[in-house]
Amino acid sequence: MASPLTLLMPVIPGTSPEAIAATLAQYQPVLDAALTSIGTVHYARTLLLDAATPNLQPGLEANAKYVIAVITEYDGSFDAYIQDFVSQVGTVFDALLQFVVGGPALIPVANNVAAFEAFITANDASEHQPNTGLYQAYTATVQQILAAL
């Protein structure tokens, strides 16, 4: 059975969306490789949202309120997943957290595991009502799916 993570990280006001986009693009190959090596992630995506617009689509408006969203579905426990994040994707989070409210205090995440886990728990919309539902069409794990291919 998969578990959801919808991590919503508010961006420090005044941060350039171009800087965030460039960082996401730079680290995407590292992120893809790490998520593949973890072997428990069904899907993962990173989005830049603007809470100041009705449809959340980012623009370049002066009143932008950006949020970096990391949305995944994974197998196993939350604690094991966060440990995988720290060991395999820590450098990606180190790069992104420089833009996030409260994020610089967590860098490097490898030295701040408990605080990083608390940050994720507090900012995981999947764990807060009314967002706790997850439809899953199958119960197979990533490893079971890969073995069947």
Name the average pLDDT. Answer: 92
| Low-confidence sequence ranges | none
- Globally, the shape reads globular
- Radius of gyration, whole Å: 16 Å
Distance between the amino and carboxyl termini: 19 Å
Instruction: Return the structural class.
Output: alpha+beta
Cross-sheet strand order for the largest sheet: 1-3-2
Beta content: 15-25%
Tell me the helix content. 40-55%
The total count of helices amounts to 4
Q: What is the N-to-C succession of helices and strands?
A: EHEEHHH
Largest sheet: 3 strands, antiparallel
How many strand segments? Answer: 3
Number of domains: 1
Task: Describe the protein's architecture and organization.
The chain has 149 residues and is α+β, with helices and mostly antiparallel strands. It has one domain (2-148). It is built from four helices and three strands; from the N terminus they run E-H-E-E-H-H-H. The protein has helices at 17-38, 78-97, 113-123, 142-148, and strands at residues 2-10, 41-50, 66-75.
